[in-house]
Design a protein that fits this description.
Elements lengths: L2 H21 L39 H8 L2 H18 L7 H17 L4 E19 L2 E2 L3 E2 L11 E6 L21 E5 L5 H10 L4 E5 L21 E4 L1 H13 L3 E21 L4 E11 L9 H19 L7 E8 L7 H13 L1 H5 L1 E7 L10 E3 L16 H14 L5 E3 L8 H5 L4 E5 L8 H7 L23 H20 L29
Parallel strand pairs: 4-5, 5-6, 6-7, 9-10, 9-11, 11-14, 12-13
Antiparallel strand pairs: 1-2, 1-8, 3-7, 4-8, 8-10, 12-14
């Protein structure tokens, strides 16, 4: 009850007590009776009652609760519809294509309407587009898809024997020891390492072309080698079924094949979109990012309109709470991630070269790449490497960031699992340069386990996103439940660290050589 109602009730009780004391004790079994010296006394006591329609005020919401309540899933889905529309109109949202430009304009317009001043950071990249591709074995055509970034074969193609490495994935020079692949066509299995590494290793061993067969049923679609470089061999992909059939043929004797790839390679320009709050400390920046581009010929809604749209709605709603921030929050929508993390790498490289102090001012980078997978997990980047080995030394503050995510999920009774800092998303350039990082991932081309089904539901034995890097990655094939769980966590971490980074701060000297000079990742960064 309110304070005023409490005082009224206490006063009424006091009046009643005094009246009974003056009257004296009642006879057993009787009510109040007159004493012998006077007439009966009737004491009427009025006790204050709560007025109808009046309630105690609700408890005040925390900053996290306010932002989570404001970042609504239907609003995020509205952004997804706009990004789907851009892909529908122009064919996709790939870097260097008009669909990406339209998506960028949409994000920028919504940011301006919310009160931000977004800016573009331009960079050039090597654009590739497949004009023709054929793979024939014994005169029979085999369906194949050229990996993004692949060079062309010489005019007329490459006709040679198929050769498989000793280790099927062909991830290092040892896989080709004792195998003569010089001038031949390498036949390697997907998995263990990036497509880029497979192609580079095979070429270094002497292969004239590379055919990668899928490690799951169906075709190898929308795969990428990263940025096109001279170290790559002409590379195309085939289904698991065709790959296994070719291996069986090889076991019986030599198999001749022809690979003929015609790929346009040219320089194009694209950009990142950056926006930040006006308020907050500029020397303790919380940076939050998602890539806005997608693979060619796909709407790319889960990968990664889901992260970009969630980031956009978080930024819009955070602007209304900007007065609560102690630290500046900087949002980034990266370009050309699918071509090898190009936008985020350009951003970090520019700071390293031109403004290293500004890189030191970034307290933490939070990455959101795929947060609505249909067969989802709730994955938290495994900074302490308790389950997954990271692709680079994990900077100080990252483990503390992981703990904050886990503490939040415990508070809402949501199970989580570890997901690797594998080098396959935009945190890579940050952790390579000593910036603490964290983030979430709902799963991509990995296979869901029975344990994960017990935690999150879904189907074991199939990938987290069966539509990953395919035209079926559209707005009809996402999990809104995953989107809601993830967007709540994204909102929480944004305002939590925007208020204070004390929980992830490390003492001076805790980093052996400082953020900028932290050990870099090994050569051959893992890409999609």
């Amino acid at each position: 009850m309110s304070a005023s109602r409490g005082r009224a009730a206490i006063a009424a009780s006091a009046v009643l007590g005094v009246g009974l004391a003056l009257l004296g004790p009642a006879a057993p079994g009787q009510g109040s009776t007159p004493d012998q010296s006077g007439p009966a006394v009737h004491e009427r006591v009025h006790v204050a009652k709560p007025k109808p329609g009046k309630h105690a005020p609700p408890p005040r919401l925390t900053d996290s609760e306010k932002l989570r309540k404001a970042v609504k899933t239907p609003r995020i889905v509205n952004h997804l519809r706009q990004l789907q529309a851009a892909a529908d109109r122009y064919g996709d949202r790939a870097a260097g294509h008009e669909g990406y430009n339209a998506a960028s304009r949409y994000v920028e317009s919504r940011l301006r309407a919310a009160g931000y001043s977004p800016r573009r950071q331009y960079f050039d990249f090597v654009y590739t587009r497949v004009n023709a591709n054929t793979l024939t074995v014994g005169g029979e055509a085999i369906a194949n898809e050229v990996l993004t970034g692949s060079p062309s074969t010489p005019a007329g193609g490459v006709t040679a024997n198929l050769v498989a490495p000793a280790a099927p994935q062909g991830c290092d020079a040892a896989a080709w020891q004792g195998v003569d692949v010089t001038g031949q066509i390498a036949l390697v299995n997907r998995g263990t390492c990036s497509f880029q590494i497979k192609s580079e290793v095979a070429k270094a061993a002497g292969a004239a072309a590379v055919v990668i067969w899928n490690n799951a049923p169906g075709p190898l679609s929308n795969a990428t080698l990263g940025e096109s470089t001279p170290a790559l061999a002409p590379t195309t992909g085939i289904s698991q079924e065709d790959g296994q059939a070719l291996l069986a043929d090889l076991a019986a004797g030599p198999v001749e094949a022809t690979v003929d790839l015609d790929v346009t390679v040219e320089e194009r320009r694209t950009w990142n979109v950056i926006a930040e709050t006006r308020r907050g400390r500029a020397d303790d920046v919380v940076m939050v990012g998602s890539h806005l581009d997608g693979v060619q010929d796909a709407a790319a809604i889960n990968d990664n309109a889901s992260g970009s749209a969630t980031l956009l709605e978080t930024a819009i709603q955070l602007k209304k709470m900007e007065g609560r921030l102690r630290n500046k929050v900087r949002f980034a929508w990266w370009g050309a991630e699918e071509l090898g993390l190009l936008g985020s790498t350009h951003y970090v490289d520019q700071l390293v070269e031109n403004n290293p102090e500004a890189l030191d001012d970034i307290a933490v980078y939070l990455n959101y790449d795929m947060v609505a997978s249909p067969n989802y997990i709730i994955g938290v980047y495994d900074a302490d490497e308790s389950t997954e080995v990271a692709s680079a030394p994990v900077p100080a503050g990252s483990i503390e960031t992981e703990r904050l995510y886990r503490a939040y999920f415990r508070s809402v009774k949501q199970p989580v699992v570890d997901t690797a800092f594998s080098g396959r998303s935009d945190y890579q350039a940050f952790i390579e340069n000593g910036v603490a990082a964290g983030g979430l991932f709902s799963g991509g081309d990995g296979t869901k386990t029975a344990r994960e089904v017990s935690l999150f539901g879904g189907t074991a034995g199939i990938t987290y996103d069966p539509n990953y890097h395919t035209p079926a990655d559209d707005i009809s094939n996402i999990s809104r439940r995953s989107l809601g769980i993830m967007s709540d966590a994204i909102a929480h971490m944004t305002i939590r660290l925007g208020r204070t980074t004390k929980a992830i701060d490390t003492p001076d000297g805790a980093l052996p050589t400082g953020r900028r000079n932290a050990p870099r990742a090994p050569e051959g960064v893992l890409l999609r």
